[in-house]
Amino acid sequence: MIDPAAPQQSSALSDAVRQALAITKRGVDELLIESDYIQKLVRAEQTGKPLRIKLGLDPTAPDLHLGHTVVLNKLRQLQDLGHQVIFLIGDFTSMIGDPSGRNITRPPLTKEQIEQNARTYFAQASLVLDKERTEIRYNSQWCDALGSAGMIQLAAKYTVARILERDDFTKRLKAGTPISVHELLYPLMQGYDSVALRSDLELGGTDQKFNLLVGRELQKESGQEPQCILTMPLLEGLDGVEKMSKSKGNYIGITEPANTMFAKVMSISDDMMWRYYELLSFRPLEEIAAFKRSAEEGRNPRDIKVLLAQEIVTRFHSAQAAGDALADFDNRAKGGIPDEIPDVSLAGAPLGIGQLLKQANLCASTSEALRMVEQGGVRIDGAVVSDKGLKVDAGAFVLQVGKRKFARVTLA
């Protein structure tokens, strides 16, 4: 959303504020309210007091993927501008369960699950953020202290009608899908975090817009200057359709091995590559535009995708690892076997090909294994397996499924 008041202000802004605004807006979906944000930037420049910028994540899973880094990257950019970033772990709100984008009630996590997931969250986020300059907080600190009386007082500040304006709640009501009362509390509790932290700007995905706006309203109710909100697009997964999600299996984990990460980036479509460049690359926009023009003029998109894969692997591993991953990928493309593959010892020869692939952890089930055989995606020592009824005798051999999965098997 572009605030009509912003252009009139921009001519009087310092170069530093204009640069900060440009960095803030790169790749974002919406910045609300832009004129308010400009005023905050100007004040920060004049007073030397950095903005308090908040990102809250519920530790619903122990591992972060590239989809999470879209907003983390933006947080790091704002951190590098000198502002105070707050990495908020929603250990209290995780027990409610965020209903955003859900058509069913999200099962709440236990305290033990939350603690286990939270242990790895900030360590992984520190692969993007400067942990020495990051304030890490847990919202149980103030939510537990709120108590039942405080919860009732908080609930009195927002109407049911406004809560039900949320798109996912509206759809569930129309469909007759149950909505539990505790789910209605989630936007209020997330909004209360902004009050507790006196947030100037809150970041989130586009699916969090409603919750972020609640934070603005609760700050007004509490006599605070309302935060601005910045929403980032949701990154599609490897399938190019659904948003990246570990539960959907279409993700690239930021702690995955370099070779795996590289190969997964290379597996995205040529069209989707530009979306990944837009949301994940730190290259100047002019350089990305030049890449696009060169592809339109006949350059092989694969070469441009290699540069993206190397950039991402370098970020989370090293330049050496990125170079090795490219060599490994090229070797596999030529039908070669990677240098490092798991060794697996199995018993029960002769073993059916479906069971063999499942027990070697190359397929999740025998039915998936047999589908891969039907599609010509299974090889033993480089030879394609076409017989779903194949019984594999005892011996040592290399099993391959698709382009990326290998195992050196000893079958007895």
From TrEMBL:
Protein name in the entry: Tyrosine--tRNA ligase
Keywords in alphabetical order: Aminoacyl-tRNA synthetase, ATP-binding, Cytoplasm, Ligase, Nucleotide-binding, Protein biosynthesis, RNA-binding
Pfam families documented for this protein: S4, tRNA-synt_1b
UniProt keyword Thylakoid present: no
Record organism: Noviherbaspirillum sedimenti
Short sequence motif named 'KMSKS' region, residue ranges: 243-247
Recorded GO CC terms: cytosol
Annotated ATP binding sites: K246
SUPFAM superfamilies associated with the record: Alpha-L RNA-binding motif, Nucleotidylyl transferase
